[in-house]
């Protein structure tokens, strides 16, 4: 459905265009029909620029891109016919009624008047906007407006839909609601045409990419730095975090000893101790050992058995599943959160049930 090779975009900037911004630096991307792919990356990573090239809004500086079977430079009209695009801003005109806005969009895509009306009503129904059919776009709420934007992108039943930050600015409830609708529209399209709809979206929301997308393409500084399912990325690049707190031990540095034992257990990657060194662990300080391990749930019982056999008292133990932020950190040494990405709730970090053992 999409194939790019060495896709590149430079922008000339400055008063005399003397400086160059290398917004996209040679992206190779393959998307198969029916895939739901999230492009994730910090501010300025090149996500929107990539989408704008794929949707023929801007020309690549170099490289190639074929979208829905057509070259974006040689056959932009053919590409536009086959794709839907929901940009970052609200696309609908504010003074128009919702149904008219949608029907006009259908006309732009070459539908006759009756078909355009019918399609507008179908979409308003599917996106639960029928109540607001004759309401002016400017009077819709943010969530309703974003759903109308999605409807605008789908009016001509494209087989490929691009969504640029579809849920930015929506509250968690409206985001979940938008996603329900997008996924339902995708199922409806499959039922109606027998063809799976391909969706490519950009997002800042780590948890959204994690839970919604079947595949995550991580972009940084205009390049793809990782491309896989969220599960694989997390397992391969970040690993689980196993955190144990030890009973405060005087004269015996249990954490140092447990670090040695931890290294011998299969699946070990790295360990960090707090306090980080030396035997001088005070009376009330609870030393902590944090281990990165491949399968935390399998690793932890073995670590606890090893501690027990060595007489090291463990007070608490937890396994934390990694997030996509951990993946980004492992890849770049930077946190995506600090770079402007976000989660909607603190609960986005999936923490597995904890185990406790007596000291
Ligand atoms: N028209 C333009 N002229 C000059 N520079 C541009 C232009 N459009 C984008 N850029 C620059 O290209 C780089 C990539 O921008 P882009 O909008 O693609 O990033 P992004 O990953 O979508 O970021 P965000 O998440 O903030 O939307 C940025 O440094 C940006 O400032």
Q: Strand order, main sheet: write it out.
A: 6-7-8-3-9-10
CATH hierarchy class name of the largest domain: Alpha Beta
The gross shape turns out to be elongated
Q: Can you tell me the CATH architecture of the largest domain?
A: 3-Layer(aba) Sandwich
What ranges have pLDDT less than 50 throughout 5 or more consecutive residues? 344-359
Distance, first to last CA: 57 Å
Level of helix content? 25-40%
> What ligand molecules are bound, each kind once?
adenosine-5'-triphosphate
* Radius of gyration based on Cα positions: 25 Å
Considering the protein shown, what is the CATH homologous superfamily of the largest domain?
P-loop containing nucleotide triphosphate hydrolases
Looking at this protein, list some descriptive labels:
2 domains; 11 helices; 359 residues; Alpha-Beta Plaits; Rossmann fold; single chain; binds adenosine-5'-triphosphate
Walk me through this protein's architecture.
With 359 residues, the chain is of the alpha/beta class. The protein folds into two domains: 2-234, Rossmann fold, CATH 3.40.50; 240-320, Alpha-Beta Plaits (2-Layer Sandwich). The protein has eleven helices and 14 strands. It has helices at 47-54, 76-82, 98-108, 113-126, 142-154, 172-193, 206-212, 230-238, 254-263, 296-309, 324-332; strands at residues 2-13, 19-31, 36-40, 62-67, 70-71, 83-86, 160-164, 198-203, 215-220, 223-228, 240-246, 268-274, 288-293, 314-320. Strands 6-7-8-3-9-10 form a six-stranded mixed beta sheet, sandwiched between helices. The chain has a four-stranded antiparallel beta sheet with strand order 2-1-4-5, covered by helices on one side. A four-stranded antiparallel beta sheet has the order 12-13-11-14. Residues 344-359 have low confidence and may be disordered. Adenosine-5'-triphosphate (ATP) is lined by residues 11, 13, 21, 23, 41, 43-49, 204. Adenosine-5'-triphosphate (ATP) binds next to strand 1, strand 2 and helix 1.
């Amino acid at each position: 459905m999409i194939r790019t090779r060495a896709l590149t975009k430079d922008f000339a900037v400055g008063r005399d265009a003397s400086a160059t911004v290398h917004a996209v630096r040679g992206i190779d991307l393959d998307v198969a029909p029916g895939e739901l792919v999230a492009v994730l990356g910090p501010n300025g990573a090149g996500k929107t620029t990539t989408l704008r090239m794929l949707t023929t809004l801007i020309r690549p500086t170099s490289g190639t891109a074929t979208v829905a079977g057509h070259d974006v430079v040689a056959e932009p009209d053919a590409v536009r016919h086959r794709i839907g695009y929901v940009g970052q801003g609200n696309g609908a005109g504010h003074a128009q009624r919702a149904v008219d806005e949608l029907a006009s969009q259908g006309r732009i895509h070459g539908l006759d008047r009756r078909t355009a009306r019918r399609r507008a009503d179908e979409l308003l129904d599917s996106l639960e906007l029928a109540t607001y059919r004759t309401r002016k776009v400017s009077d819709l709420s943010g969530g309703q407006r974003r759903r109308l934007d999605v409807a605008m992108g789908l009016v001509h039943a494209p087989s490929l839909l691009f969504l640029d930050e579809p849920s930015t600015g929506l509250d968690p409830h409206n985001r979940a609601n938008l996603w329900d609708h997008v996924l339902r529209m995708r199922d409806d399209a499959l039922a109606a045409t027998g063809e799976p709809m391909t969706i490519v979206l950009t997002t800042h929301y780590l948890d959204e990419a994690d839970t919604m997308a079947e595949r995550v393409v991580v972009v940084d500084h205009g390049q793809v730095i990782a491309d896989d399912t969220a599960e694989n990325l997390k397992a391969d690049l970040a690993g689980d975090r196993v955190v144990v707190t030890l009973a405060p031990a005087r004269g015996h540095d249990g954490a140092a000893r447990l670090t040695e034992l931890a290294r011998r257990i299969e699946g070990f990657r790295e360990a960090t101790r707090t306090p980080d060194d030396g035997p001088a662990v005070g009376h009330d300080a609870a030393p902590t050992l944090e281990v990165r391990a491949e399968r935390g749930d399998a690793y932890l019982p073995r670590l606890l058995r090893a501690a027990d056999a060595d007489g090291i008292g463990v007070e608490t133990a937890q396994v934390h599943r990694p997030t996509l932020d951990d993946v980004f950190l492992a890849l770049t040494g930077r946190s995506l959160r600090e770079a402007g990405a976000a989660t909607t709730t603190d609960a986005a970090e999936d923490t597995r049930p904890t185990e406790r053992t007596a000291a």
